Structure prediction request, 721 residues.
Amino acid sequence: MYRYDDFDHRLVRERVAQFRDQTRRFIRGELSEDEFRPLRLQNGLYIQRHAPMFRISIPYGLMSTRQLRKLADIARRYDRGYGHFSTRQNLQLNWPRLEDVPDILEELADVEMHAIQTSGNDVRNITSDHFAGVARDEVVDPRPYCELIRQWAALHPEFAYLPRKFKIAVTGASNDRTAVLLHDIGLVLVKDKTGDVGFRVIVGGGMGRTPMIGHVIREFLPRAEIVNYLDAILRTYNRFGRRDNKWKARIKILVKERTPDQFARDVEDEWSHLRDGPSTVPDHEFERLAGHFTTPPYDVLPGDDASYKAAIADNRAFANWASRNVHAHRVPGYAIVTLSLKKAGVPPGDATSEQMEAIADLADAYSYGEVGATHEQNLVLRDVRQRDLFTVWSRLRPLGLATPNIGLLTDIVCCPGGDFCSLANAKSIPIADAIARRFDDLDYLHDIGEVDLNMSGCMNACGQHHIGHIGILGVDKNGSEWYQVSIGGAQGNDAALGKVIGPSFAAKDMPDVVARLIDTYVDHRHADERFIDTVRRIGTEPFKERVYATAH
Amino acid sequence: MPRLIRNRALARDDYALVRDATSLADVPDAVAVIVPLPLWLERRGAFVARGETGVWLAPADDPATLVRDLVHLPVIAIDFPQFTDGRGYSHARLLRQRYHYQGEVRSIGDVGRDQLHYLAQCGFDAFLIPDGRNAEDALAAFDELSDGYQASVLRAPWFRRRQAIRVTQ
Prediction:
């Protein structure tokens, strides 16, 4: 993975010193709250319902075990011994003290981490495919490109005060695992006929209160032009994006108001001035960055491991886990393992310091010392030999990290919600927990099959409810918490936005509502049809009828 | 009194900033002035003849409207009604890098120490620090970050300089 050189170290240290001074001036009263707010946000610090919330960047969701141990250590010493892995592949701490944050940043810098631009109206952490570099369907490894874009975005002097936050995702696989169509900019790495690498450029997607699917504005951008092109898009947005209304300030609104075609022309015009300029990326820079993402010294294995196959045949619990949490790896005899952070009774995405340390130990022993974070709030061991899977599973179970539910109904994506977040209209975690408990019968859960359930505590859609096959949105009605349900959303190559099925529900009804949606699916499904496929085939009516017939 | 920083040092402000002026009668005589863009565009000939006149841009103004006037303008000020409105950063870069403006680019409005570093990278070389903000302290801001990854008005992107260093060594 990427390692800092002297230049990277120097910049991050200087940034820490700068923020330490800004924090000191704020505490002394030399900076007002209004003056300090954007500065702390650009360093990852929110003021939340109970305490500051501090968001640490995990660039494109990839970390070393040394980094993960440091996160565990920081969570224990500066917080309450746990952290929350977010849908932007970051780690959030919910209880740090403002005056400790410069020290936390200093410790993060020791392990080549930072919190630069994890909040604020700036370019946020670049997200990517959590299977990058090991996926079987990969066309181009996105990691070196993500690192290039991370460096471009970090401390960019022109784009620190954008109209609104700005999110970029990069994927290089034929199956999208990044929700690339739902970002301010989505970049798909592709090869042209001659094998040259470039990007398909998508803009104007997003969730929030006005969800939209992004538009392709360029089918093939040569990779050398990526920085020039990003500058062109960001400059167009910085100059012309709306600033009169926070809720209309994302780039998707600009793209819609101008029309995608006109926006594309605006960008191309801006790019025509930047093209072939100083920020054109030379081949040797791509090569240098690619050199950081070397192939681990894989064993040469014949193919699927016999002992692994035998263990699946022998042990039903292991087989369940293998069927959901183990994924195909590009190297014969290896597998990708997802560690579920979705155990009933635990807020989705939360991990304790002890769990993080145990995961680091496992990654060192079985996965070349690297751990991935997914935008679905789970963790990944990227390079496990199939013959080690049974041992890994046996060690994950007592840690509560082997729940066999990846992609299933209880693999719920969920924001911290009203228990923590000052923006939220409603709690989300207790609702997720009640639903997870309702579907605790593993056989039934596996029989239902793949269902993405996403929940957000407010319109900001941190839980990405618009792209849940079942999406739940917390709303405020006269000071009490209600939940609006949508179905038919999807991420991936056929991304779609869910449709609201009708009036919202009280918290206590939510497990029943989800159960009725599932019952409708079970009654109507064809063989091998997933929940989302059935919704697409029969439409939302039968689901609505079932839910509202008995709910009121 | 607002204090002016120019070329990374405190300096005497030799321009009167005319915020509200809709006609030439609103512009004081016998001093160098910075006038609003609409008035400049309306009375361009008179201001060119007068000399010692700069112009200030609001966030929604387009620097391209000044392209033919740049040789006549000793200073272009860019206003920040709120420091969180970042349009002026792009305007300064356009003036410097697309239109090759060589005069002074000055920030006015709600700007303080914590904006100066990025502003300087975008091509500002003068900063009118408003009342209530410490201009002496602000001078330290320029060196808080010693470098950056991206291209700016002051530097090439690091990936180009890194290579140059490697080649020359």
About this structure: The interface with chain A takes residues 59, 83-87, 89-91, 93, 98, 112, 114, 117-119, 121-122, 134, 144-152, 156-160, 162-163 of chain B (CB under 8 Å). The two ends of chain B are 50 Å apart (CA to CA).
